[in-house]
UniProtKB/TrEMBL annotation:
InterPro entries: AlgH-like. Pfam families: DUF179. SUPFAM superfamilies: VC0467-like. One of its GO terms (cellular component) is cytosol. It comes from the Bacteria. This is UPF0301 protein OA238_c37660. Belongs to the UPF0301 (AlgH) family. Coiled coil: none annotated. It comes from Octadecabacter arcticus 238.
């Protein structure tokens, strides 16, 4: 969960916010026939050893034989407001600016911003469409559009991302590190951060109180 997976385009969202220092982790060489998880949610099991991912819910933006990339959607970035971010990036805030929740997206490249949003907004090559009616844009253009009221219907911004090298996510799934469920608008954009982990488990019909911390199954 510490692999660099995303190349950097022009006009990338760069912020001066230090959140978590992350060391790169060696990836596993194990490769399985795990289904493509693009557009799915990963739900951290209770015995997740890394505190950065304690009760984390991660939206998978891309998954292939080359690895995977996702954004944590339930860990708000401390002391970072959207209005302050716009000011830092010299983007004027208009009368129709929609407030955007800012989260810690993961330990890789925490100085970069990634906007996860509904697919009603598209910016050509600057937008990566994801399964399930969601998309991700990582250029300043989307923030400028949000500031003028022309952005997506629903969105959140992740600082940094979570990356896996080839076979690493598959290995963690085999070891019961994560549960997988479908992503919904409500979980991504509607629920308060502290309720998303429980809400994601309920999509699977799992009672958090009955979840085994070691078995990986309900």
């Amino acid at each position: 969960m510490g692999e660099r997976y995303v190349s950097e385009p022009r006009r990338t969202i760069r912020v001066q916010t230090a959140l978590v220092n992350s060391g790169q982790r060696p990836h596993s060489s194990i490769m399985t026939d795990t289904t493509d998880l693009t557009g799915k949610l990963l739900i951290a099991m209770p015995d997740m050893g890394d505190p950065r991912f304690d009760r984390a819910v991660i939206f998978i933006c891309a998954h292939s034989a080359d690895g995977a990339m996702g954004l944590i959607v339930n860990k708000p970035a401390p002391d970072v407001r959207f209005s302050d971010l716009l000011e830092q990036l010299s983007i004027d805030e208009g009368d129709q600016t929609t407030d955007v929740r800012i989260h810690f997206g993961g330990p890789v490249e925490t100085g970069r911003g990634f906007v996860l949003h509904t697919s009603d907004y598209k910016l050509g090559a600057g937008t990566m469409e994801v399964a399930g009616g969601f998309a991700m844009t990582a250029t300043l253009d989307i923030l400028e559009d949000i500031a003028t009221g022309g952005g997506p219907k629903r969105s959140m911004l992740g600082l940094g991302y979570t990356g896996w090298g080839p076979g690493q996510l598959e290995s963690e799934l085999v070891k019961n590190g994560w549960l997988v469920c479908d992503a919904t608008d409500d979980i991504l954009f509607g629920r308060a951060a502290e309720h998303k982990w429980t809400a994601a488990l309920k999509v699977l019909g799992v009672n958090p109180l009955m979840l085994s911390a070691s078995g990986g199954s309900a």
